[in-house]
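Worked problem 6 (solution included).
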Amino acid sequence: MKARSDIAAMIGSRICHDLISPLGAIGNGVELLSMTGVAQSPEMELIAESVENANARIRFFRIAYGAASEDQTIARAEIASTLAAAARGGRLSYFWEAEGDQPRNLVRIAFLVLQCLETAMPYGGDIHIRRDGETWEITGEADKLKIDEQLWTSLISARKRVAVTPALVQFMLLPIVAQESGRVIALKLAPERIVLRF
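Solution. The predicted structure is:
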């Protein structure tokens, strides 16, 4: 199974790498146009905002779906800026409360959890990410959650795996990546709160 997730991670890394350069070029082009005195139009603002949003998603996806090994770390500043960019203009607020640099493979698990939580929080809410020693706890809180219980319980039971669409691939990948890192996922579902530990 590890070989399959490694291939998926390499594909994810490759796609993110190949997309980031043209997006950067578009962003640079918009900036150059603004420096040459071209009036800031709603169309130019839309292009600039779209490039910024696409860059934010790709940075997020690179961490969640890209290759990650135990000996790699990711700086807290990079994590914070990625989450801030992902939250900009959205309904979710992320609170990264884990101090210092973190192992990339564990941050990858955390970001896959965040992707799962996004599906249950279409109306917005707060997501808190904490690390206490070796234990990570991620809590999603909202006044209104949309919980597919069968999908969520598939994270903790191999017998309850469900077929997923591409939009929900994080639910299939999360238990595999967690197991490869020697982590077991614990889940608690409540009407206004979802808590995952690993």
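Discussion: The helical segments are 2-35, 42-65, 76-87, 104-120, 149-153, 169-180.
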